[in-house]
Each structure stands twice: as structure tokens, then as C-alpha cells.
Amino acid sequence: MKQFLKGCNLYLIGMxxxxxxxxxxxxxxxxxxxxxxxxxxxxxxxxxxxxxxxAESGEAAFRELETKVLSxxxxxxxxxxxxxxxxxLNRQNWSYxxxxxxxxxxxxxxxxxxxxxxxxxxxxxRDPDPMAKLRSLLDQRQSLYKQADVRVIxxxxxxxxxxxxxxxAEISKILKDHTxxx
Length: 182
Ligand SMILES: Nc1ncnc2c1ncn2[C@@H]1O[C@H](COP(=O)(O)OP(=O)(O)O)[C@@H](O)[C@H]1O
Ligand SMILES: O=C(O)C1=C[C@@H](OP(=O)(O)O)[C@@H](O)[C@H](O)C1
What we know:
- Pathway: Metabolic intermediate biosynthesis; chorismate biosynthesis; chorismate from D-erythrose 4-phosphate and phosphoenolpyruvate: step 5/7.
- It catalyses: shikimate + ATP = 3-phosphoshikimate + ADP + H(+).
- Its EC number is 2.7.1.71.
- Pfam families: SKI.
- Mg(2+) binds at residue 21.
- By secondary structure, this protein is an alpha/beta fold.
- The protein has a single domain (10-180), classed as P-loop containing nucleotide triphosphate hydrolases (Rossmann fold).
- The chain has nine helices and five strands.
- The protein has helices at residues 2-5, 20-31, 38-46, 50-57, 59-73, 91-97, 109-116, 130-145, 160-181, and strands spanning 10-13, 34-37, 79-82, 101-106, 150-153.
- A five-stranded parallel sheet has the order 2-3-1-4-5.
- Shikimate-3-phosphate binds at residues 16, 20, 39, 50, 84-86, 122-124.
């Protein structure tokens, strides 16, 4: 797998709470890649937390920083990147994501809701009805997540380790298909 990937970055996409950070941290040592989280890089660049950026500068400013950080990651190889849930919204971001292999962790809204109950670090969930908010975000975004190279459907009992194994299995399928075509 490592040799097939040829150092190509892996980008995990999916809704907030889908496990991108958790799974990326498992995958990185398995691939002997470096793990990075785009939200943490944005916080470093801004010198503020994500909720502070949203509160003080608004979502549009956050999205600009997100694009800047992602564009800079393209220069690197051997990265597993846990992206923010909304990274797929900006068309320009896709030109950067497509430098690597894009993996969608597809998790039902009910599970996301359970995992994120009481979470205060995700400004978009500060809503009187977080479940309805998650549903509407997924409705708006699903067609974009579907543009991933690989979709991993996550079941309610799947552990992060099992999901990481599933990611590698799905990636090896597309890499083999690609090799067979050439
Ligand atoms: N497969 C899983 N099963 C149960 N809980 C999980 C799983 N993956 C992640 N979590 C938990 O869900 C929460 C959100 O996970 P996280 O990796 O931060 O998601 P993301 O980076 O996509 O927002 C965390 O508390 C994490 O421990
Ligand atoms: O879905 C979104 O638009 C967002 C998801 C968050 O990242 P996670 O997916 O890591 O929670 C973070 O980037 C920000 O709060 C916006």
C-alpha cells in the first residue's frame, strides 16, 4: 500500500464528528505518514480558536483561512490530513484536495449527533436544534462529499481501528484499478 500511494497525501473529509481526526491519527503511523489537522493549523495561523474566529471574524473569514492552509499543504507529501467538515464547500479547495486521495467517512446523522452532544468547539452546532442543523448541513453537502475518491460507510459499532482498516482496503481497490488501467 505504502509503495502504491507513492507519498500521495490522504485527505479525510466528512461531516463534523465523523471521526476524521481519530481515524487520521491511526492511519498516519500505519502508512508512516505525518498526521495533520487543518483546523489546528488554522488556529495556529490565526492565533485563535475556531469558535473565536467564527465569533470575531465570521464564517467567511474562517473559510478563507481554511483555503490558505489547504493550499499550503499541497506542497507536502506523505501527509494524512483530517480536514474540517466544510472544506468541500469551496470549489478551489477541490483543486488542492485532488492532489491527493480523498476519503469520505460517511456516518449517519444520528451517530454524529450522539458523538457531538454537548460539544462546544463546533460553532455551527450552536443551534437550538443541533440534530436538525446536522441534517440540513448533510443535505447541503452530501453531493460534494460524494466527489471523494473513496467512500467508507461507517456502521454504529465500527471502531476507529476497523474504520482505518476499511479506508486502506478501499484505497487499495482504487489504486489497483488505476494500475490495471495503465
Ligand atoms: N468510530 C467511532 N466510534 C465512536 N466514537 C467515535 C468514533 N470515531 C470518533 N469518535 C468520537 O467522536 C468524536 C468526534 O470525532 P473526531 O475524530 O473529532 O471527528 P471529526 O474530526 O470528523 O470532527 C470524538 O469524541 C471521538 O472520540
Ligand atoms: O462542518 C463545518 O463547516 C466545520 C467543521 C469543523 O471541523 P470538524 O469537521 O473537524 O469538526 C470546523 O472546521 C468548523 O467548525 C466548521
